[in-house]
Every structure is written in structure tokens, then in C-alpha cells.
Amino acid sequence: MMETGQVCMKIAGRDAGKIAVIIEKLDQKFVIIDGQTRRRKCNIAHLEPLQKKLEINEKASHDEVKKAFKQIGIELKDKVKKEKKEKETEFSKGHAAEKGTKKKK
Amino acid sequence: MQGRYKSRTFRRTKKTTPGARKIQHYTKRKPKKQVCANCCSILSGIPRLNDTAMRNLAKTKKRPERPYGGVLCTTCMRAEMIKKARQIQL
Asked: Which ranges in A44-102 belong to alpha helices (H)?
């Protein structure tokens, strides 16, 4: 049942409800999946198989999986890393930029 | 006893002083544990604090990080996901 190319949905964890495809089978319990979730190891008990099968090689790369999903009609979005912007606060400029000078009594 | 300590939102505890006297102290009660909306089993991952303390916490510290977190227990959530998976037509 659970072989490379089987499309399934995750039912447990923080990415539950997302669709993925099996890339490689490790043993009786674990497989490697990729798709709307991250590329990672997963327990077979946490997957529910759907009615389709994709034609992909074993250990396919992320781009090949993306092309195969487009033929069915599912689009995979890639995460874009945002650049961190530093906020300007009172303390970000340092001691030299304090307003006014302190007078010693 | 002061007037405001007569209400049942305060619980009465017994203590002994170093001088061997028995006195009564008044402490406030905590809210109850939250339960699943479907099967009424106790949910984990939700702190038992009053309204003002919960409002000052970050969003990720009040509930677990999964769909229906803080609403359904794990067994009920898995049953919902299996229902959804069987209705999908690709």
C-alpha cells in the first residue's frame, strides 16, 4: 500500500491536514515524505492514503516533486526568508547619541 | 473576618504559628482545567491562570501548536482529519 509515489495526507502533528507524497520507504514503520510539509521522516500510522499515485523516481528532488504535483492541480509554495530590519529605539544608537550632556554636580 | 473574605472565591487554609497558635489564612482559587469540546476529556498544554495573567502571555504559550489546538483532544482531532481526507477528490 505505502510505496513510493503514493499521495497521502498527514493526520497528526503541527502540519496535520497537509498533502504529501512518499519518496522513500525505510522499513516497516518509517517513510520519507515531501510536499506541502517539510522534507522529513514520518511514521506510517500518521498518514492517511488518498486515491492518487504520482510517477516519480526514488529519492526525487524537491523540484521534481513540484512538477509532479502541478499535473494533479496542487501548487506548492516555497517559503521566502525575510530580511531582519533593526528597529530604531533609544538604546540602538549607543551612548554617544544621548540627548544633551549630563552635568556633574 | 473582613467582609470581602466571606465570599466563596476565597478558600480557607489552616496554619500554625511559631508560637503554637492556630490561625486561618485566605487564598484565592485557580480556574478549572479546560476540556475537549467533543468528548470532555482534559486538555494538556493550557496553563491555569486568571484573565489578566493570560492576557500578558505570548500567543504560543497558551495552547499547543497544531490544528484545533486548545479546542479538541488528539484523538478527536485525528478523527476529523481522517473524515476530511476521505472527502477529498483529486
From this structure: 62-72
